[in-house]
Amino acid sequence: MTAPDTHSTYGPQSFWWKYIWSQDHKVIAIQYFITSLAIGLVALVLSWLMRIQIGFPGALEFIDANAYYQFLTMHGMIMVIYLLTAMFLGGFGNYLIPLMIGARDMVFPFLNMLSYWLYLLAVIILVCGFFVPGGSTGAGWTLYPPQAILPGTPGSDWGIIFMLVSLVTFVIAATMGGLNYVTTVLQARTRGMTLMRMPLTVWGIFIASLMALLAFPALFVSGLMMLSDKILGSSFFMPAIISMGQDPGYSGGSPILFQHLFWFFGHPEVYIVALPAFGIVSDLISCHARKGIFGYRMMVWAIVSIAALSFIVWAHHMYVSGMNPLFGFFFATTTLIIAVPTAIKVYNWTLTLWQGDIHLTLPMLFSVAFISTFLIGGLTGLFLGNVIVDLPLSDTYFVVAHFHMVMGMAPVMVVFGAIYHWYPMVTGRLLNTTLGHWHFWVTFIGSYAIYFPMHYLGILGMPRRYYAYEDYSFIPPSAQDLNAFITVAALIVGFFQLLFLFNLIYSFFRGEKASANPWRATSLEWQTPDIPPTHGNWGAQQPTVYRWAYDFNVPGHSSDFIPQNTPVMNEGKDHEIR
Amino acid sequence: MASVNNSSNSSVWQEISTDFSGDQRVFQLSWGKTMMWMFLLGDVFVFSCLLISYMSVRITTTAEWPNSADVFSLTIGTQTVPLLLIAIMTFILITSSGTMAIAVNYAFQDKLRRSQFLILATALLGLSFVGMQALEWSKLIHEGVRPWSNPMGASQFGACFFLITGFHGLHVSIGVIYLLLLAKKLSNNHRQKPENRLSANAVEIAGLYWHFVDLVWVFIFALFYLW
Question: Is A292 in contact with A282 (CB distance < 8 Å)?
Fold first, then answer.
């Protein structure tokens, strides 16, 4: 058996050890948050620059074709990996897992600290990539060879090397973190916290961390191989090719192999971002509708089966790459089967709202916005999952609209809702609601204003990743007006994200003081002796759990919620579930 | 310890279900051992990706793949023996798995001196494996094998060889350092306060890693050298 947890309740006191070289999961989580928000801001500015070029071609002179491709690549890579993955696993995972399962910290705090510093190193290498000769890589976020490492693609000298080294470093950091999250959830829960009493937030982050451990190796290996192709001149992914009139000396490699490796990582990656969002939004909806989550067991099994299925659908990203038609049939079938557990989740969220005591707080508003954007994005996924529908739509703005809706806006809505929900626990103050409502309505309506027209543009046949759209006879001139409209909407929505950042800072100093449990939530993270929780989380004794996390409005009970650590007093009346 | 846990049932499935539905821990393992298993699970995917990629490029490449029996042969006197060095390396690595297993056994019997000796023997065998790998690398480099080309055929042969054996050799080297540190800690163990002492569990965790590295070699041996 293991030694008991021996962390002292009294953490380090000096500034450097308390906030910089900290091994406390809460401080590491905040470090992850701030770093990922900072690099996310870079990606936001890049998206503005791209939109200005598309909406008003030539308006900014420094955006030439090369710069456009570099912005596009870095925007995608940062948003998917360095912002969303890092924030959901490193940020929310670190902060919430130990608190929600009643642990004092992660099982290996030192490894946890190392994970953050390696993540920071990965971000620094990535940022250095902007400043090397030739600039950052412009190969598209999928980095497909052969073009990614051949002259002609921007950043093919140094940018691609910095990108790959940064990714490999990120994988090592994510592995260190993921091992900690998985082991903590499996082995370090408090008394009474069975797996089936865990809040769905923990389930989502736990399964996503497990997926990260199994999916990132493919990115790691493909990164090493492409580095070898670029630096040593081997030919893993490079066929014999004439590039700009010259023979670079490659022969016999397989570009399709890279696509398989990349998407074996890339598709689970979608769910590494989505599953924590699924989990968090379930808890937000249940708490702010004052009603137990509908179908808890089904929700857990849906998360598990989505995770399992997501490892056998990767080639639906490669319908146009050239495959045996039977493969297309197989991957289309598995892709469409994923719709079943996903639909179960959407129905269960809706049925949790049904006849609930809905409080239209900001976390609830963002949760409803999540259901809406996720549903729209998920439905277009059904179109694209079919080979015959995908072929004409592939590489058009329809795809851009689809994935921005389903894995861009939807998880981001959850990030916002979760920050409005948990900010009082972290800082002891509420975020300003007036600013919050402005932020919500502009972001929600704006996301439709930006991405709904893109579906139409995609069906018109407007290809993605083009620098300019002049003189294409199949695109009517009126499409340019729509593009200008999208750009204006994107600039406004982007500006209101800055307002949100301002709110984060402003409320930290001037926000209304929050009570200990302002949302009257049941889960353990709100039941700590001190809010915000101090080092060691639980004071002298860890809590004991007697019930699931969703005892809202239990019949015959005086209060409308029962925290998880409240003992079952009256058998029968106080109906304890599980 | 586990209040909800009650593993007095005889059926295996019932025990599994009881373990999973219990509070506090799913597996009756220490935190460190659970984490090592999880790490190895991830590492299985790393080596699978490497080996599957190797098999894929071997099938699709346009040039002919060199005959590994010829490439990896040693000439002693007038006799050319195919795969001689690799056979010795494989034998050494599998022997080291044996010494490691005995070390774990002695650690659980609290015979730390013997355990420490066998851990050092394991590290020494691992070191000789890495040394022979260095010999093999230099022989091949001397014969003109490079990641980008080789005189025998498909250029991917060299690239795959250096990447896969290099990555595995790195694992063995890290394992040797890990074992040496473990042996050093064990030799100081009796001077430590009881709560800081290493348990047999720590030796077993190192053993898990070492056996895994050996197991991976068996697959590399079969798929790269024998195919």
Answer: no
